[in-house]
Amino acid sequence: MKIMVINTGSSSIKFQLFDMANNSAAIVEGLIERIGEAKGRIKYKRAKQGDEYNKEEVFNDHKDGLELVAKLLVDKQWGVIDDVQEIDAVGHRTVHGGERFNKSVHIDDKVMNALKEMIPLAPLHNPANITGIEVAQQIFPHANQVAIFDTAFHQTMPPKAYRYAIPEKLYRDSNIRRYGFHGTSHLYVSREASSYLNIPIEKFNCITIHIGNGCSMAAIAEGKSVDTSMGMTPLEGLIMGTRCGDIDPAIPYYLATNNSMTIEDINTTLNKESGVKGIADSNDLRDIEERYIAGNDEKAKLAIEMYAYRIKKYIGAYFAALSRVDAIIFTAGVGENSDIIRELACDKLDNLGICLDVQKNKGRKKGICDLSKDNTKVKILVVSTNEELEIARQTRDVVQGTVG
Ligand code: ADP
Fold first, then answer.
1. Could you give the domains of the chain?
2. N or C: which end of the chain has fewer CB within 10 A?
3. How far is the CA of 361 from the centre of ligand 1 (A)?
């Protein structure tokens, strides 16, 4: 079975073609960017051949972009399949599934209508995801179209974790509650860790720490998400590249009344100008880490300390939520690459059975590694995330009717 995974943004499409019969190998991966701008670009990499088609091109719309991908897939020089009809299904990364979707689904008219109804919950993401689906339906009309939601994995949270202490009416009428995001990644790394540790998923308790540009943590009990740090939107929780994470909810009111900021300004400030960028003038943790190591950079030091301290506080909170923790799992750009953040986040947690082996922790990690000291209670793992592969797996399961 060949499955195309598509992640559509407002001006970009990321794509990856998997051959599920051949060890779920990714045959092609690529990116179309700057759709609708004067100059766009396509990158199309073939895994087996190890080559790349990388060209500037004008893409008027998403359809233009995906049409070129479909052409390249069967091209004499660049092709990897004989006919696009070989693609059995297209899996669409879909950001917000609200309360409606607690698992991946086959896309029909009803699902499309539900996605449109949910636009207010993710006004920046869901419209692009809908465009991606409509375009894929035109270009791969024979293929099953499947939606995989970032929010679905967290639908197992109990009300005490997902409700906010605000008037009930706002939940009932306006759907205001915690949904959580990065579900595909939290699910993937928790499953990988359970099989690595040889603990059946239905008995596995863990804390997953996805720290990339966006950052979130999840408390997972017996394989199911029971709490997560992102909320109704991806702004809540951990400190991120440009997002503030948890702050006093009265601050927006204060900014509006004292600083005469508009609601738009406040939204931009908290989403785009905050996080480590707000503290240390860069949203890239690599840069900040270099400055931290070089020394004499108070801003970089504070940003790193705040970032790691927030993770540590959530480890404590989720330890309390789970009572027994088999493993703590670091993943994504920062989690897989930053030994400093891992060390500071786990610092002095020995009383919880969390003991990092400083030597094992050194350097960047690929695949799965155990960084805990021998014979300690809680395993500290790094697991490389692979959201595209998880989307492909779930797409296959929906097509085969085996989705749980
Ligand atoms: P996304 O959330 O967009 O998928 P990634 O998971 O790729 O992002 O993470 C990107 C972030 O990872 C970058 O902003 C960078 O700060 C961080 N990162 C990548 N490599 C390193 C490194 N060696 N040390 C520290 N941070 C790193």
1. 2-149 (3.30.420.40), 200-387 (3.30.420.40)
2. C
3. 17
